Amino acid sequence: MQLIIGGDLVPTQSNIDLFSNGDINILFGGELLSLWDAADMQILNLEVPITDKKDPIAKCGPNLIAPTSTMKGIKALNPTLFTLANNHILDQGIQGLKSTEDILNNNGISFIGAGNNLNEANKHYIFIKDNLKIGVYACAENEFTIATENTPGANPFDPLESLDHIVTLKAECDYVIVLYHGGKEHYRYPSPYLQKVCRKMAQKGADLVVCQHSHCIGCYEKYNSSTLVYGQGNFLFDDSDSEFWQTSLLIKVNISDKLQLDYIPIVKAINSVRLADGKTAEDLLLAFHQRSCEILKSGFVEQQYRQFAANNYLLYISQFAAFGKWLSRIDRQLFNGMLAKRKYNKRQLLAIQNYIQCEAHRE
């Protein structure tokens, strides 16, 4: 049995017409499509509501939307399963999620990771072939699109619930794949917390954990008998010229008496995506494996993340200080961040830290 897992799929302004016309050969290229079609099961993260009505929710960050006409190209990919557990699926409100669910159902495409309430959102998917049962579970970090007991949205990662869901699914299946929408964007390593979460998922029965959301290729580790992938990048999401968004991985999962993985580099080609070839593919895989070796070194994950946090300190402080885009830029470029640094004294910074860290305050 062969499965293939892609990252974030979002039709954007630059390729909406191609999706609407079903021009998947232009969008993905013949070589990639041949590889895609050869798998028994294809999984993608649909990170956008499919709707013709704009009804943006109040949130931090962009409100994504793709018209229903793009479903022609999406369906032409013939995906087996979409995960909707992400931080954008509720961008256009409840109607946007409902429209997405309806159009997927009408086109015979299965989905998990979102629903009318928590009970629906945390449902899993089981794929059966060759007398093997493959369970797939999807959850997301808590942002603005999360379902509750009584309201629609994405399935949140909740350590008091999600780990039990994995245990239950493992009892029903031969293998379990968890798609976790989380981790720091544009960061190629796991944070200490993310690594802890993924390892715990493995302990509870996940054979493969794939972290999406970071928009870049990260690294992986073998933990006990499981594989943890910390970032695979987008599938097709043409929304940034950042270097992180230019390259990604497809994950090919071969299953017989054990689970084996192949990592297949892909590259963005303007508003489309292609298989990486030659030196480009070699370099991407070499860097991927090098980072994967680095995180095995004692203390590396913690030290690397402390440095990353320090590099982003001014960004967070400026946001808390409500400086805005231009004042933040002026402060960084002309004053080396002194305005933001002087906004709060040490006592005030400790209070902010306590409000963020303490469970009672955070809730």
UniProtKB/TrEMBL annotation:
Give the matching CDD domains.
MPP_CapA
Please state what the protein is called.
CapA family protein
Where, if anywhere, are coiled coils annotated? none
Q: What region holds the Capsule synthesis protein CapA domain?
A: 2-239
Q: Pfam families under this entry?
A: PGA_cap (PF09587)
Organism classification: Bacteria, Pseudomonadati, Pseudomonadota, Gammaproteobacteria, Methylococcales
The family this protein is said to belong to: Belongs to the CapA family.
* Superkingdom, taxonomy of origin: Bacteria
